[in-house]
Amino acid sequence: MAYRYACGDAKRELVAGALLCATLVGGTYVAAHVALVIAFGIDRRLGLVVEAALGWTTLSARDLIAEASAVTARLECGDVCGARRRVARIVGRDTAQLDAAEIARATIETLAESACDGIIAPLLALAIGGVPLALAFKAASTLDSMIGHIEPPYTFIGQASARLDDVACYIPARITALVIAGCAPLVGADAWRALMVLRADGHRHRSPNAGRPEAAMAGALGVRLGGRNRYDGVAREGAFLGADLPAPTIGDARQAAALVGIVAVTFAATIGVVLGGLESFGIWKS
Predict the structure, then answer these.
(1) How would DSSP label each residue in 4-59?
(2) For residues 90 and 238, is the Cβ–Cβ distance under 8 A?
(3) Best label site of 69, 82, 203, 275, fewest CB within 10 Å?
(4) pLDDT in tens, 38-58
(5) Virtual torsion, Cα 262, 263, 268, 269, nearest 10 deg
(6) CB 52: neighbour CB atoms within 10 A?
(7) Sequence-distant (≥ 6) Cβ neighbours of residue 119 within 8 angstroms
(8) Is the Cβ–Cβ distance between 129 and 118 less than 8 Å?
(9) What sign for the dihedral angle of Cα 216, 124, 119, 29?
(10) d(Cα 213, Cα 202) in Å, to the nearest integer?
């Protein structure tokens, strides 16, 4: 419908994309709020069940780590073709020609980036605005992944979604980078190097947000991330994060998955403690 309205006109595409973004994200928030009001109106226990179920859908730590582990398992078996097929499920780049090192890099990069938009950002949204805000964030993130690209045919119609996602993830991305660095020693990684690479290279990524957690992950593991990727057959050059470090290995991808798991548990526990403390002082009410 949005494309039919735009008819290939750039200005119309911008308007159509903004309307699509506002409708889906705002509609998701309103629908979630109404659903919870109805559920709690029927019975408080039902409301809590619905709230927990909806909140759970906004977090992707378990699926993310499982998918990354499936990729590394195939690499460890020497099944590069199988690993390419598996990594294609979690990255947007072309994977048909990737070798083992590039598959490991793709896996690590998506683990780092998804630690933000699949774990830290939804947890923050849940803490600040409850399930409706978390679901609205998830809608914005999903819409951005679908149409928030600079390549045709999404160049104009996806701009509103891309900008909204940039704003929504600005603070979470930087928190994610710091949490990755802070948790690094728990999996035998290097916290200080994570901070150094974050400071040196976090801003070099074409995304205003993705470079932060990726740079922290590169430093923590002591590997080089970034560089050239292909999308729909077109090569796109990207800055290196940790340019002087070696290319990642299968073991590095395993370590990255373990680190993201620790990040998820640590941040969730921290949010729980902070909210519990605020509630005890009457500053915040659940």
Answers:
(1) HHHTT-HHHHHHHHHHHHHHHHHHHHHHHHHHHHHHHHH-HHHHHHHHHHHHHHT-
(2) no
(3) 203
(4) 999 999 999 999 999 999 999
(5) 60
(6) 10
(7) 59, 60, 61, 64, 176, 260, 263, 264, 267
(8) no
(9) negative
(10) 8
Query: What radius of gyration, in Å, describes the C-alpha atoms of the chain?
Result: 20
d(CA 258, CA 18): 38
Q: Which residues are within 8 A (CB) of 80 and not within 5 positions of it... i.e. 6 or more apart?
A: 74, 99, 100, 103
Against a cut of 0.85, is the pTM above it?
yes
For residue 234, list its beta bridge partners: 231
Burial 210-244 (b: 16+ CB within 10 A, else e): bbbbbbbbbbbbbbbbbeebeeeeeeeebeebbee
Residue type, 205: H
Residue 3 has pLDDT above 60, yes or no: no
Q: How far is the C-alpha of 242 from the C-alpha of 44, rounded, in Å? A: 51
Q: Tell me, what's the pLDDT at 286?
A: 60
For residue 238 the two structure tokens come to: 């990207």
Tokens encoding 5: 């309205």
